[in-house]
Design a protein that fits this description.
By secondary structure, the protein is α+β, with helices and mostly antiparallel strands. The chain contains four helices and six strands, in the order ααααββββββ. Helix 3 runs antiparallel to helix 4 (about 105-125).
Amino acid sequence: MSENTSPQPNSSLSGDPSPEELEAAQAANEFDALTIAQAEVATLQAKNTELADSYLRAKAETENARRRADDEVSKARKYALESFAESLLPVADSLEAGLSIKDVTPEQIKEGAEATLKQLKSALERNKVIAIDPQVGTKFDPHQHQAISMVPAEQEANTVVSVLQKGYLIAERVLRPALVTVSAPK
């Protein structure tokens, strides 16, 4: 028996892979690519689920904040006059007490009316209701004054001659303009 020493064609020795090895390598590469792609899809699906959950939570939080703000605005409107009304109660009490007294002298009525007016003015000022009572000679301000008439006067034109009715501001906004007569141009 003689051994055949002639070299068998062996692809691993020659460096060129056989078609079966190429096919197996290609299948392995495709399997690895498929596994990687499936892992990426799973990762992206998890991230998508996480983002969708975050979005829904943020949307719910925004809706809750909006609902709370609406409730607060509603309550603020509903109870806005509470402190103002509370500050006027002593004025009403004073008026009722004054009217319940029998055999009152005119001096006592005047004294009671002045005290009650002082209480009312104090209550208005605490609630930022400020009188507009321009002095004679003050420049006419159409934002705070309403001219009832123009009269000839010995003062500069377009200045207040007299105040017929005080006006009022509430928090720097005109509640009612002062009714005034204004000097006519000469």
